[in-house]
Please model this.
Amino acid sequence: MKKFAIVVLTALVAVSCLKRNDLTNYAVPAKILTFGVEGQLTVTIDAQLQKVHVLMPAYSDLTKLTVTAFSVTDGVSCEPEISVGEVLDLTEPLEVMLSNEDVYVWTIDASTKEPRSGVQLYNMNFDSWTQEGKAWYAYGADATAEQKAVWGNANKTITDMGKDSNCVPETEFVAVEGEGKKALKLTTNLLDFWILKKLAAGSIFNGRLGDINFTTFNADLYWGIPFSDRPFALDGYACYKPATINQAEDPYKDKMGQMDTGHVFVLLTDWAEPFKVNPPATLVDFDNDPAIIGYGKLVFDHEMSEYEHFTLKIDYRNDRTPKYIVIVASSSSLGDYFTGGDGSILYLDEFSFLYK
Model:
């Protein structure tokens, strides 16, 4: 009798196991098999921890990651549903429930690669200034000759004509508070020379001022200082206070009465030497100059009550190594054409290059 009971029990266990294995996916762990997003560096899928981790390039926007691949174990349902082409916000881990006969909770998260360090320019925070006569210059009293050549402006020309500098340090209204902190203030002025009126936009650039024609007020500007790195973006703070355009020359006379705009742009090039600009006759062809390696531009087109943070991405056109860099900022975008609003002001502060 005892032997018979053991045989019956064994048979029941065998039948039970047979039925259990016949159920589709029963006892088969539900897994995420593949996952990918646009622009990823790496994706790690850990079945033991039930976790997917995505590593993105430095400064990637984790709120907008486009799914390029996603698959799970056959016959498994997924909540929430994820499909290729969907945009996910992975600033916080996303919890995903995979279900067959059991429920498996997976997490998908993302992080950005630690940015690398790279070359910065002298006085990018605009804390150092020197005044010579009435002209202000963006370098400290102890600056070397090389440092003095980093930031150019037209102050000497303007002050030689008896007017005030329009590229000056700002000590009260700064983006970052602290002892000795300063900002850059660019102001557009309408210069009145008896029977002649000319607009002078406040501007600053990497390079130096050359000769000026006091009849036409055209000046030679030598754009570019040596630079061989490839930053991802220019980071900084800006506050723009535009005036109505009240001075305009061809081909922008139709801009009269419109609100002024300011701008900042970055050029990386392999010019053979600094580029001689003589606006408006000689300007850089931003679209077609074959020596341009990278370019990024930001236009300020609205009134600001306080500093706004910006990250100006540089778009690279090829993989060549730069020889020169030019940052140019102006309180009137059309200042090269003597067009703008008298009294437009652009404050800039705490520039830095970001590197991936």
About this structure: DSSP finds three helices and 26 strands in the chain.
